[in-house]
Amino acid sequence: MPSLRLAQLLQRSVVRGKIVKVQYFEEQGLGVFLEKLRAQGWLELFTNTQLGCSVPELAEFYANCSVTKGVVTSVVGGKKVRFDAPKLGEILGVPATRFDVYVRKDKTVLG
C-alpha cells in the first residue's frame, strides 16, 4: 500500500515537452538567454526532446526524498538512490560547479 505522500504525488500532473526551442528564442531576441545556457553547459539538457521520466517512479522518488548536508537520498523500486551536486551533474551531463550560487536559503536573486 503506497504512503499518503506517494498517493498525493501520484495525483499531480507532470509537465512534459517543455523544452527550449532555439529558433523561437532567437526570433524573440532572447539569444542572450541561450548563450547563458550554452555557457553553463545546460543548453543540450533544455533542448533534448528525447529525455523523459516515469511518473510513478518520479513520484516515489519525491515521496521518499530527503536532503542532508547537500546529499540527496531516496528509495525507488526498493533501491536506495544517493547523490550530491557533482554526481547529479555527471548524471545529467551538465556542469555542477558553483551550484551553491543557485541554492540560497533566503531565495534571493544573486547579481
**What's the domain count?**
1
Extended strand count: 3
What is the terminal separation in angstroms?
47 Å
Apparent shape:
globular
| Strand-pairing-aware structural class | alpha+beta
How helix-rich are the residues, as a percent range? 40-55%
Q: Helix-strand pattern, N to C? A: HHHHHEEEH
For this structure, the quaternary state is single chain
- Report the mean per-residue pLDDT as an integer: 79
So how many helices? 6
Radius of gyration: 17 Å
Uncertain runs are: none
* Strand-residue proportion: 5-15%
Largest sheet: 3 strands, antiparallel
Strand order of the largest sheet: 1-2-3
Question: Could you give a short description of this structure?
Answer:
Helix content is 41%, strand content 13%. The protein has 111 residues and is α+β, with helices and mostly antiparallel strands.
Strand and helix map with partners:
Elements: H1 4-11, H2 22-27, H3 31-40, H4 43-47, H5 55-63, E1 66-68, E2 71-76, E3 79-83, H6 85-92
Antiparallel strand pairs: 1-2, 2-3
Helix pairs in contact: 1-5
Tell me what the structure shows.
It is a single chain. The chain has helices spanning 4-11, 22-27, 31-40, 43-47, 55-63, 85-92, and strands at residues 66-68, 71-76, 79-83. The chain has a three-stranded antiparallel β-sheet. The chain has one domain (4-101). It is an alpha+beta fold and 111 residues long. The termini are far apart. It is globular. The chain has six helices and three strands; from the N terminus they run αααααβββα.
